[in-house]
Each structure stands twice: as C-alpha cells, then as structure tokens.
UniProtKB/TrEMBL annotation:
This is Archease domain-containing protein. The keyword Repressor does not apply. The keyword Calcium applies. Residues 2-136 form the Archease domain.
Length: 136
C-alpha cells in the first residue's frame, strides 16, 4: 500500500509492505502515481534490468527512486511493474513499462528530484515502512 502526502512545497511518498522487496516495489509505484494522474494507464510493454550497489536500505531506496526518475528524464520511460530483490550487494530489479505518451499519460506532478529530507526505511512490528520527500 502506498500514498502521497503533502509536505510544505514538496510532496511526500509513503508505503508499507510485508518485506523490503515489496516495499521498494510499492515506493516505485508510489513515485509513478506522483508523476501521472492514472498510473494504471502505463503498460508493462518493455522490460529493463536495473542493478544498484549498496548495503544501507535508506540510501538504496534513494538511489532506486533516483534511477527510476532518471530513466524518465533521459528515456521518457514510465514503469508499471516492479520485481525487486534486495540482497547483500544491493538492489536487482526487473521493471516493465513504456515510453511516456502524452495522449494517454497526463502529468500529475513534475517530480524534479528525490531528496534525503526525512528519508526513512524502518521495520515496525514485522512490517516495513518507507517515506521520502520529492521535490516538485
């Protein structure tokens, strides 16, 4: 489960999930929902592999979301499906999506950057919670 929350002039992303893998997938979906009004219209037509090295979960989350935002900025790719594995060396993911199509994808927010402000990844009573503020 994920949600957006207001934060001063920025926007917050929050997700909960039963595992860190699922949490990173939820946060990716949350990012897409911040970017386009109807993320269900994004089709999983093309597959891409992403690997990010690291061991700190918070920094990995930051780098993961930053990589997805970079793929949008450079390749105009939006993603609809996320198969994420967090291991000892970092994140390995298969993502599926399609190029931005202005006829089908309406912008919700222009996400300019992922920030470290109030970034957290914590385990609470056997479930995982993540929060990050994005610059819009």
């Amino acid at each position: 489960m994920y949600e957006l929350f207001e934060h001063t002039a920025d926007l917050g992303l929050r997700a909960t999930a039963p595992t860190p893998d699922a949490l990173f997938a939820e946060m990716a979906a949350c990012l897409v929902s911040a970017m386009v009004e109807d993320p269900a219209r994004v089709q999983p037509a093309q597959e891409l592999q992403i690997e990010i090295a690291g061991t700190d979960r918070e920094f990995l989350l930051f780098d993961w979301l930053k990589e997805l935002l970079l793929r949008f900025e450079t390749d105009r790719m939006l993603f609809a499906a996320f198969d994420v594995r967090i291991g000892e060396a970092g994140v390995t993911a298969t993502v599926r999506g399609e190029p931005f199509d202005p006829d089908r994808h309406t912008f919700a927010h222009e996400v300019k950057a992922i920030t470290y402000h109030e970034l957290k990844v914590v385990e609470i009573d056997g479930a995982w919670l993540a929060e990050v503020i994005v610059d819009i």
